[in-house]
Amino acid sequence: MVRKHYPELLEHSPLREQAIAVGQRVFELAEFLVRVAGVTDVGASFPHAVAYHPSCHATRELGIYDEPMQLLRAVRDIDLRPLPNEGECCGFGGMFSTKFGMISSAMGDTKAVNLEQSGAEYVTAIDPSCLMHLDGVFGATGRKLKTIYLAGILAGSSGNGFAAKESR
């Protein structure tokens, strides 16, 4: 929102240049760690089967593709599972989910089926709205999958007693 849409919203405002300048200093966490700080291994440990959902907003709007996976591949004891049709939208899409609820639910269910097929215990993403939507789909359909934000996995280390917190 800050990088892309504020300058668009302020297109005819004297604040547009300031919005662009602010947007150039705002980063998503995985993007910042990998591209700016040059960090791919934060010393995390997460002994679970995990599938990564690449959100539409991260890939299409921000151009974030492999950065989250670079971080996940360095997590100790993680069992990364490939996600069938990983590039398909989960169905949230902001207002899309409220305007087209039935379509959004069907898309979320398709994503949930793919996640189940991966054998993952957890799904992670860098977009909390996707995780919120998927968590709702899991709960409504009785699926045992759990959601966890990427930062939650990266915060885990064998030295601090971290235990994954279930989303429900």
Structure, described:
This protein is an alpha/beta fold. It has a single domain (29-154), classed as Rossmann fold (3-Layer(aba) Sandwich), CATH 3.40.50. It has nine helices and four strands, in the order αααβααβααβαβα. A four-stranded parallel β-sheet has the order 2-1-3-4, sandwiched between helices. Mean pLDDT is 90; it is low at 158-168.
Q: What fraction, in percent, of the residue positions are helical?
A: 40-55%
Structural class: alpha/beta
Strand content: 5-15%
Number of helical segments?
Answer: 9
Q: Tell me the domain tally.
A: 1
Strand order of the largest sheet: 2-1-3-4
**Average pLDDT across residues?**
90
Any guess at the CATH architecture?
A: 3-Layer(aba) Sandwich
Low-pLDDT windows of residues: 158-168
Query: Could you name the CATH class?
Result: Alpha Beta
- What order do the helices and strands follow? HHHEHHEHHEHEH
CATH fold description: Rossmann fold
What are the SSEs and their pairings?
Elements: H1 5-9, H2 16-23, H3 29-36, E1 49-52, H4 56-61, H5 67-73, E2 79-80, H6 96-99, H7 101-118, E3 122-125, H8 128-141, E4 146-149, H9 150-154
Parallel strand pairs: 1-2, 1-3, 3-4
Helix pairs in contact: 3-5, 7-8
